[in-house]
UniProtKB/TrEMBL annotation:
Protein name: histidine kinase
InterPro entries per record: BphY/WalK/GraS-like, HATPase_C_sf, HATPase_dom, His_kinase_dom, HisK_dim/P_dom, HisK_dim/P_sf, Sig_transdc_His_kin-like_C
Alphabetized CDD domains for the sequence: HisKA
Keywords from the named record: ATP-binding, Cell membrane, Kinase, Membrane, Nucleotide-binding, Phosphoprotein, Transferase, Transmembrane, Transmembrane helix, Two-component regulatory system
Gene3D superfamilies registered for this protein in UniProt: 1.10.287.130, Histidine kinase-like ATPase, C-terminal domain
Organism: Mesorhizobium sangaii
């Protein structure tokens, strides 16, 4: 009975609220009906009927928008009530740990187990993370001095990972706190690569600039009236400026490749024609280094999808290196063959020299920017240290791969595998 009375009171209150919200509509309607009654001959029954309809309309909800908004809010509240902290933690991709006022782990998501291992509810965070920065972070948040804080933390094992760790309280009065580990390893690796690249490029440019500056100073001073010294110094200066120009060209090539990482589809390249053009263009260099270039091509069409200019640059870099660094072998063999039936379908282009070869420990890093097996030999041969890095970037754009085989003292073979579709 009490429930029924409460329900009736609630309904009455709801009707009163609706009437109050519609008061201006009611007033306007009554005025309009009275005006019509005064100006026209309308029976009292019609007037009463109009007033009843107006009152009924006013008692209905003003719009459906408010009702749908209330329904949506109610559904949202019910859905959130069904969620637990465990479900919310599992939805976070980064490692997340919930702990209490004693710095004891209450819950850790799957990402935290994968990243750190050996963590479980009941374990002390102070024992798990002993680094001073982590201890200071926990102390600051648990003492109440700060509501949230962020530190940089490096996990050494099993592999070194760098994290940006944030700690904050959960809600108000829950006595729970949360740690979130944002992995910064890749970003820091890229930053280090950028810093190393700038340092190496600056060094490579500074060396010839210092040489040119020194010779200019000498020409303006002691060698001012020495024709023989002047000619010698000018020749060296010309060589150094050529070295800087080659380095800048290679830097621009790398920049252009990084700006257009995707390859336009639909273009076919004839590898036989491209490699022949490369060999012809490097004929004078081969003659200068007393190197004979031999060809060994498979029969039939040798077409692959790709960019002709970029693939020309790949084979030009590889063949130029073979002629320069393998000149003691006296010959270079360029072969084109179709891939084995069991492997990924494609065409392999191999450039093999018979020079001193490459020590095994250098092979994994030989495509890095500015990496050189022998710095002095590279500079003597007018190398910039960027050629193989450019090759790697171009082949990545072509979904191709480069493999290097070498035995010290017996030459080196650089093989490019290009997919046929």
């Amino acid at each position: 009975m009490a429930d029924l009375d409460a329900e009736q009171r609630g309904m009455a209150q709801g009707l009163a609220v609706r009437l109050w919200n519609s008061r201006w509509l009611l007033i306007a309607g009554v005025v309009a009906i009275v005006a019509v009654y005064a100006l026209a001959a309308i029976s009292g029954f019609v007037i009463l009927a109009a007033l009843a309809l107006l009152l009924a309309a006013a008692m209905l909800p003003v719009t459906g928008t408010r009702q749908s908004a209330e329904s949506a809010a109610a559904i949202e509240a019910i859905g959130l009530q069904r969620l637990s902290g465990e479900y919310l933690a599992a939805a976070v991709a980064d490692p997340l740990i919930i702990f209490d006022r004693t710095a004891t782990i209450v819950h850790a998501n799957a990402a935290a187990f994968a990243a750190f291992g050996g963590i479980a509810p009941g374990l002390s965070l102070s024992l798990k993370f002993r680094a001073p920065e982590m201890q200071a972070l926990l102390d600051g948040v648990l003492s109440g001095n700060v509501a949230s804080d962020v530190v940089d933390y490096t996990e050494k094992l099993p592999v070194e990972r760098a994290y940006r760790v944030s700690a904050s309280s959960v809600g108000h009065g829950t006595d729970l706190y949360v740690l979130v580990f944002k992995d910064q390893s890749e970003a820091r690796r890229i930053d280090r690569m950028r810093a190393d690249f700038i340092a190496n490029a600056s060094h490579e440019l500074r060396t010839p600039l210092a040489s040119i500056s020194g010779f200019i100073e000498t020409l303006r001073g002691p060698a001012r009236n020495d024709p023989a010294a002047r000619d010698q110094f000018l020749q060296i200066m010309q060589s150094q400026t050529g070295r800087m120009a080659r380095l800048i060209d290679d830097l621009l090539s790398l920049s252009r490749l990084e700006m257009k990482p995707y390859l336009k589809p639909g273009t076919e390249v004839d590898l036989r024609e491209t490699v022949d053009s490369v060999i012809d263009s490097l004929g004078p260099l081969a003659t200068e280094n007393s190197v004979v270039i031999e060809r060994d091509y498979a029969d039939g069409p040798l077409d692959v999808p790709g960019d002709g200019d970029e693939l020309f640059q790949v084979f030009e870099n590889l063949l130029e290196n073979a002629c320069k660094y393998g000149q003691s072998g006296g010959r270079v063999v360029v072969s084109i063959a179709r891939g084995d039936a069991g492997s990924e379908p494609g065409i392999d282009v191999t450039i093999r020299d018979f020079g001193p070869g490459i020590p095994e420990e250098h092979i994994p890093r030989i495509t890095e920017r500015f990496y050189r097996v022998d710095v002095e030999t590279s500079r003597t041969q007018k190398g910039t240290g960027l050629g193989l890095s450019i090759v790697k970037h171009i082949l990545t754009r072509h979904n191709a791969r480069l493999s290097i085989k070498s035995e010290f003292g017996k030459g080196a073979a650089f093989s490019v595998h290009l997919p046929t579709h």
